[in-house]
Amino acid sequence: MKRILIVEDETPIREFEAINLQRAGYETVEADCGETALEILKSDVIGFDIALLDIMMPGISGIEVCKEIRKTNNSIGIIMLTAKSQEMDKISGLMTGADDYVTKPFSPAELLARVDSLYRRVTVQKEKPREDANRLVCGEFVLDLRRRTLTKSGKNIELTQVEFQMIEYFFNHHDEALMRDEILKEVWGESYYGEEKIVDVNIRRLRMKIEEDPSVPKHLVTVWGMGYKWNT
To answer: Mean pLDDT across the stretch 17-35?
Structure first.
């Protein structure tokens, strides 16, 4: 069963999201605040595929909920719901571990498209073959496709599903300049119609995890006018 946690303090919006996702075959669990969401996540034994988090809520914000989720769970897909005026909040949400964001107001079709796209990415990663030989090595980095881990000089680096897919794509095309739209299609899917800047924010987040000095990257470098490249 496809399970999604909806965290939204405005009842009409929360019910609107739940009804449309239920019609599309999702099992929904609702929380009207961040505190309730964290209690649900703590007590749940089945697990969620996706969490849909409103950023602006009284008490614990969606960004704080995202941070708490990522402390223990890198496999769940996270979508932030933001207002048009919350540009910095979008970036903050992505930097703390969200996989995507949807700007309010949105149509049922847009919400479902983004949820479906993320659900496919999450399940594809879970169902990939995991033979012991599946390892990608780039210098001091080892990407273990069976255990879904990245290590640098033997030290583990925690990755979300999206980050893992990005690193896998870069390792398979190391020393090649990859366009932003190529990365977007590979990781977010052909049907994704969000903004390319989501690639840039995720690159910033990855650099913070893998580079000695994220401001002067040696591994995940910018190719000006094109995109990014993994330097070996």
So the answer is: 96
Q: Where are the alpha helices (DSSP H) in the chain?
A: 11-23, 34-43, 62-72, 87-95, 108-127, 161-172, 180-188, 197-210
Dihedral class, residue 6 (left if φ above 0, else alpha if ψ from -120 to 50, else beta): beta
| Alpha-carbon distance values, 191 to 45, 139, 187, 227 (Å) | 32, 34, 11, 20
Query: pTM (2 decimals)?
Result: 0.76
CA distance 218 to 208: 12
Q: Packing angle between helix 108-127 and helix 11-23, nearest 10 degrees?
A: 60
CA distance 22 to 2: 10
Residue 33 · residue 64 · CB < 8 Å = no
The token pair at 5 is 């946690």
Any bridge partners for residue 144, and if so which? 135, 149
**Residue-level pLDDT at 131:** 45
Burial of 98 (0-12, 13-18, 19+ CB in 10 A): buried
Q: Which residue has the tokens 């909920």?
A: 65
